[in-house]
Amino acid sequence: MRAVVVVPVLKKTGKPAADVAASSTRSDESRLEEATGLALAIDLDVVHGTIVPVAQPKPGTLLGSGKIEEIGHILNEKDAGLVIVDHPLTPVQQRNLEKEWNAKVIDRTGLILEIFGRRASTKEGTLQVDLAHLNYQKGRLVRSWTHLERQRGGAGFMGGPGETQIEADRRLLQERIVRLERELEQVRRTRQLHRSKRKKVPHPIVALVGYTNAGKSTLFNRMTGAGVLAEDMLFATLDPTLRRLKLPHGRMVILSDTVGFISDLPTHLVAAFRATLEEVLEADLILHVRDLSDPDNQAQASDVLRILADLGIDEKEGAERIVEVWNKIDRLEPEVREALVNKAAGADNTVAVSAITGEGVDDLLAEIGQRLSGVLTECTVALGLDQLQLLPWIYEHAIVDGRDDLEDGRISLDLRLTESEAAELERRLGNGPKPVAEDW
Fold first, then answer.
1. Residue 217, marked binder
2. Does 115 show up as a binding residue in the annotation?
3. DSSP characters over 284-340
4. Tens digits of per-residue pLDDT, 104-159?
5. 259 is in an annotated binding site
6. Residue 328, annotated ligand binder?
7. How does pLDDT run across 5-14, given as a tens digit for each residue?
8. Are 162 and 153 contacting, i.e. CB atoms less than 8 angstroms apart?
9. Does 237 belong to an annotated binding site?
10. Cβ atoms of 248 and 369 closer than 8 Å
11. pLDDT band for position 375 (50/70/90)?
């Protein structure tokens, strides 16, 4: 479908209207580029894009009559039947603009929901997107169609006014929302069960987060050898993926690739995807992947940190758990790239990488190992002949710094492992408390 992209900008502050309340500033041109990228992500043919200064938002149409008429002429000239407004629209504004332009109008929230609907590939992802869609549609049931005013007969012998069609539609939507929320609650319980199982075999969790199209999935594939879809496209991947990753010193961790963030992420989506985003909350280490080739990467980073704060990861906690990964340095000029690499090397919790070429990935793995080593304990164990079957478990769950095969057949190992793993090893060696059987 041929589409026109409109980016409203408040004239008073020079900020995009969608970012008025945001603390980060972003250029109008980059907002237009992002909105166009969102449209291209669902295979729309964007024939025109325009930035519209808005001195005073109109309650009924958002835009002034002059701009509405101007955009109407563009729609006729370009033979476009869809207008994407990069700003939240009220149901009344959306309906009035559709009447003025005689074209379909969707706002930023509707566009992101449409992208998520196409990207969802698992049952969980589909449930989350469906719930967000229904909550969005519930507020869009306005009397724009005559059938919504029809009434059904009520109870009783003679019947009565009953409920209007719009009331019936709202009731049906609410019933579907309740059903989806129940199913998602089951998903949340399942995720909690999976996390509890992982804690019994405690591998640290490392989560990748970042603005959409920052290169998280490409970096995930580079580090794990997985085949996650990675394209130069906004929201190329949606469903979270977890893979085991072996660090250079032999320690095993679980790497989690999550959905990309974006400015003004619809509240419907934040609520629906909370079960998925809980993986970030449970992570021992968070890798904040940033696209350093994007001129607005600082504003994007602020948006990501704001969403993390909304999830419950405050700035103080984030400083201890977050490592910044400056990605896409291969796209920079040699002088700029060298300066950034040197700056990252001299900064705490920062690594410069290229997920495409692999440059800096070894340094990132070393940084992950160093950050997680702070929670390791050192110990030396001697395995008797009857305990050698524990060797595979030890090599999987601990870092073996030294091994000495003794003449009598015993094996002495210098280990580093977490406190919980050390306690489990003691139990397996017969030195720790045995599990207590529960009474039923």
1. yes
2. no
3. SEEEEEEETTSTTHHHHHHHHHHHHHHHT--HHHHHHHEEEEEE-GGGS-HHHHHHH
4. 999 998 898 888 787 777 777 788 788 888 888 877 765 444 444 444 444 444 34
5. yes
6. yes
7. 999 997 754 4
8. yes
9. yes
10. yes
11. low
